[in-house]
Amino acid sequence: MLRIGMLTSGGDCQALNAAMRGVVKGVFSKRDDVEIYGFQEGYKGLIYSNFKMLTSRDFSGILTVGGTILGTSRQPFKLMRVPDKDGIDKVEAMKHTYHKLNLDCLVVLGGNGTHKTANLLREEGLNVITLPKTIDNDLWGTDMTFGFQSAVDIATDTIDRIHTTATSHSRVFIVEVMGHKVGWVTLHAGIAGGADIILLPEIPYDIDVVVDAINKRAKAGKNFTIIAVAEGAISKSDAKLSKKELKAKMAKKTYPSVAYEIAEKIQKRTNQEVRITVPGHTQRGGSPCPYDRVLSTRLGAAAANLILKKEFGYMVGIKNGNIVKVPLGEVAGKLKYVEPDSDIIQEAKMTGISFGDK
Amino acid sequence: MLRIGMLTSGGDCQALNAAMRGVVKGVFSKRDDVEIYGFQEGYKGLIYSNFKMLTSRDFSGILTVGGTILGTSRQPFKLMRVPDKDGIDKVEAMKHTYHKLNLDCLVVLGGNGTHKTANLLREEGLNVITLPKTIDNDLWGTDMTFGFQSAVDIATDTIDRIHTTATSHSRVFIVEVMGHKVGWVTLHAGIAGGADIILLPEIPYDIDVVVDAINKRAKAGKNFTIIAVAEGAISKSDAKLSKKELKAKMAKKTYPSVAYEIAEKIQKRTNQEVRITVPGHTQRGGSPCPYDRVLSTRLGAAAANLILKKEFGYMVGIKNGNIVKVPLGEVAGKLKYVEPDSDIIQEAKMTGISFGDK
Amino acid sequence: MLRIGMLTSGGDCQALNAAMRGVVKGVFSKRDDVEIYGFQEGYKGLIYSNFKMLTSRDFSGILTVGGTILGTSRQPFKLMRVPDKDGIDKVEAMKHTYHKLNLDCLVVLGGNGTHKTANLLREEGLNVITLPKTIDNDLWGTDMTFGFQSAVDIATDTIDRIHTTATSHSRVFIVEVMGHKVGWVTLHAGIAGGADIILLPEIPYDIDVVVDAINKRAKAGKNFTIIAVAEGAISKSDAKLSKKELKAKMAKKTYPSVAYEIAEKIQKRTNQEVRITVPGHTQRGGSPCPYDRVLSTRLGAAAANLILKKEFGYMVGIKNGNIVKVPLGEVAGKLKYVEPDSDIIQEAKMTGISFGDK
Amino acid sequence: MLRIGMLTSGGDCQALNAAMRGVVKGVFSKRDDVEIYGFQEGYKGLIYSNFKMLTSRDFSGILTVGGTILGTSRQPFKLMRVPDKDGIDKVEAMKHTYHKLNLDCLVVLGGNGTHKTANLLREEGLNVITLPKTIDNDLWGTDMTFGFQSAVDIATDTIDRIHTTATSHSRVFIVEVMGHKVGWVTLHAGIAGGADIILLPEIPYDIDVVVDAINKRAKAGKNFTIIAVAEGAISKSDAKLSKKELKAKMAKKTYPSVAYEIAEKIQKRTNQEVRITVPGHTQRGGSPCPYDRVLSTRLGAAAANLILKKEFGYMVGIKNGNIVKVPLGEVAGKLKYVEPDSDIIQEAKMTGISFGDK
């Protein structure tokens, strides 16, 4: 008998179900004696031994369904070693559940925080396989995460819709795209949506440069400007602050989000009306795009292959078009950033996009 | 020679171009000696005699294009009779432009405010034909305005996307839909998106009833609730305030919008996490949906017919599936509200939707 | 105890699930003692007593799901009275199942053929309520059927996509839209997609007129023409044949469908390349559009209301925006056609669309 | 002065305009003294010196517009050296136009056939830069062509829609996807759409294996099967024929396309109803997906860079995420096929997909 535990952790995104379907179809293609334990709402289900027994039928028809049939929740890594209010050590509880159920392995789908915990469990002796789930595409060790392209599609659709209004009214429009630490979604959606200015966490902006770019467009007879802003976009001056200073400054701010701060600065200095749109959680929702369905199906099938070969301790990723296994110890705790001098940034600049950095 | 002035006024929406294409194709189907004067950015173009001469070619290929090729702007009706800072009386200026160009008529596309001004120009002796443009569907005298169904489609898409996240996380989600005075878009998108609670300006809500509905769902094992809220949703207690009292109260508020106020109340009383999504301007943007393209094409063609027959002073609308002409004097200044005891509300309630009113 | 049988019959379409959800949510909103018998694959399930007991849970989350959870099949009305190969009289078998299960009523969702059988069952003494399901919108007694607007959206999307290719290549493109007897989908998708020529079953075409329209466009410098053709489009000469003559002629034809015949004629006479696209079954598939979700939810809730009031023998429809009940005897066997001289046809012609009838 | 000729050749596809926009924005970002000569309808425009002078304005706002603003046409490579009916040698004519206009280079956007001609022109001494345009993704030297992902999205959407009908009716559905020689679009859309069977030109099928797969599903209680078939799918027995024998056999066939042949075989042997859907030209049409917009913008900007550096004779492609230049001589005449034993095929098989080959 092959006993597989499975859980999805962190913010939900598209193709979680598709990836799990890939894993389950994959193992059942070679063996019949498989039991699937679906832990509910992320690591919480593993901690409190809250699970459902699932059959291959449960994974049929979910290729195109958004969200996760297991539910998910956010559990900050830094709390994993902190005992619960009822005194339970969470890591020990997870190990206990794993061993009590006599699991052969645990399949974990998640992003950066999830991978830190998964690696911890591996260090504690559990057989872990992970799949790179995040719209942010910021996981180290894989060229691409599933959820990313679907999020780009939705953010681009938002910019497209704003475009028709922008051409009709003479205004500056800011679209705030998800991404606190990395700007991949903003970068791709910005290019795809024809944004005039793109502001990323990795490239601190100078408001003077942003204002110049808007004025230059106005002079060229273009009566509107569209700015794609990542949630974590930061000004050059703020980027120079220490973490502590920045935190203190942020605590005083009354803006709902960074777009509002930038909007205020622009409005003051250009005298143009500024409008803000925040697609927010919609970027995580709905049916995965075909790209993500193919990617997640491939990753899931490859994970099944590792399980059948009893090779554990890896994240399954994609590199140069090929599925690869990456040791969890190498993945955990690292982020994949947009490089300010990378080719794609240079190419974007050649098409006239300003990143507010010079 | 037939000289037609044309302008689009107020917030942009889908199918403005489609409607103008209908008018222009319509008049050219019967006459060749037509001149089209396209006034730029709404009434402003008429006031300051800022226009472009357009040919039928300019209206080719714009059926599916969002926004308006003429540009638009908001000009509050109450300022129309107030002289400009340069001393120009705006109404006189518009009449002057009209007569100077020797126009036979003026085609005006707009919503409620636009119609008040259009009616004023009619009273001043201009030949005016209007077309009912607004996503709000709140114009009196027509069953349907163009833009509405497209906006419903986008708002519904937002709720659909939120749904997949809602089923994965245990939370309350609020989607704030456009509509300050009327709730048509919220009502339709709410039903179409399967919202559990719908809050409209026309049906003041009792927060106790809203909280009860959420708790009832939780008890029935449904771990999430989706609430569609119109921008102008109002509580029963606020609805009892005088206009002045309400204004004073609003002035003190620090919420970016009504959804944030409702979110705070719910969070306090249910201890559930609440998330807010505001599709905002995207609801006005992008290509019109097929329904709006057919409606606006029909209305445009019918407007052309009135122009050719020299019948002026009407809004072209649709009643019971038939195109009708409605005297502008009857339309101006009236709004079409959702009736709290109408059939559609009763039917929605039968499917378990709460409107927070009992 | 309230015992409700339910079945979906004929070709599937969008919003069948949404409509059933409306019925079930509606009855459960007022009573708890309800049993739902879901007959499988249309009348077949009723004939052979093949059903599933369903709870309100089964209808949760299906608002946006295409197809029908009950399955469906086509059962020609003319065979209903013909005993099966195993000697079973189908009508008697259906009555037997109904009475054996002690049903209070039968809810039937279907189109024209389905309604004939439903009316027959009513005449045989069963309590029947029907809902107007068909993409064709050809049911007498209701302004609108659910499925129609979704089908229009898909057919329009097809024309939109063809448009970009058409403007790049100099060709004639034919899009064949569903509709053997009536042209509603073709008419609406044709207008919405900006088709240059629309050919409907209700308006027999003269190929000379069609060729003239193409040549006229070429002379005006427009290098492409898009033709929306209903499956049942017919030439003037064929329309004059008797049913028998036409059948004999059709039997000899080797064209896969009518679009190929028209393409051949045009290619011969204009020397232009002609391309054909047939969206086919996709027009019935996928998630219902928001319009259909609202319509079907309203109709379903209204059907629930009739059931609760024990008013049977009606189709629930919509007239002038209001939900109405129409006696089944009036509905059965009648079709709602596009009127060749109706307003919408006149308006379409004013925008330059040719219907091939001169 | 920098004089750039530009043309799009072969079947149109998504992101042609986006790619040209990238080139033009790129060159204008560094130089002002640029003239763009847009040749009309592919090589034909170059042969007959039919062109338009274009400014950077002409390329503004076309990022999202399908088709090509230059028009296109198919000109078989094998006819390039055959003099026209008016005696013109086409290759000499193209060289003549190029030199007469004093062009610095020629930017050619096209697929496989286009590249052969482009390479010929390079051999004749012209400065040529090409961009890989084709939905087929079959160009050698680049991991990805623009148009491909957009086509996959549309083909997947077709399969998605068919899915809801398939689950409602008990039938076999065949979706015929574009691809005469290579199966990339079918493979990706098949996986993304959850097809049960995928038939590609590169993996000849055995009808017995296909029938077995259908029967196995029926036995497992799955009442429908979806088959994604490439236009160029071929049976094992046909694959053994010589080119001449195959041609002779094809000449006798009366099927409109390969899907019909396969459908007939299946219908005969499984006694199941089979339905065929052919999305056809829609796969080339409409707005490019965000993935293609980013890819084509990057490729266009990189092409601009080569032009500015006067490096000619290359196709600009993408390899492992980086933009690369590939000598035209290496690209021309080679196709990039799906490898029958590649990882993606193995992964797809693990999820239960049959390729009809075992």
UniProtKB/TrEMBL annotation, chains A, B, C, D:
Binding site for ATP: G11, R74, Q75, G111, N112, G113, T114
Family in the record: Belongs to the phosphofructokinase type A (PFKA) family. Mixed-substrate PFK group III subfamily.
Name of the protein described by the UniProt record: ATP-dependent 6-phosphofructokinase
Subcellular location: Cytoplasm
Catalytic activity as recorded in UniProt: beta-D-fructose 6-phosphate + ATP = beta-D-fructose 1,6-bisphosphate + ADP + H(+)
Needed co-factor(s): Mg(2+)
Lineage: Bacteria, Bacillati, Bacillota, Clostridia, Lachnospirales
HAMAP family with a match to the protein in the record: Phosphofructokinase_III (MF_01976)
Function: Catalyzes the phosphorylation of D-fructose 6-phosphate to fructose 1,6-bisphosphate by ATP, the first committing step of glycolysis.
Gene: pfkA
Database matches in Pfam families: PFK
The keyword Cytoplasm is annotated on this UniProt entry: yes
Annotated Phosphofructokinase domain residues: 3-307
Pathway recorded for this protein: Carbohydrate degradation; glycolysis; D-glyceraldehyde 3-phosphate and glycerone phosphate from D-glucose: step 3/4
InterPro entries per record: ATP_PFK (IPR022953), ATP_PFK_prok-type (IPR012003), Phosphofructokinase_CS (IPR015912), Phosphofructokinase_dom (IPR000023), Phosphofructokinase_III (IPR012829), PKF_sf (IPR035966)
Domain of life: Bacteria
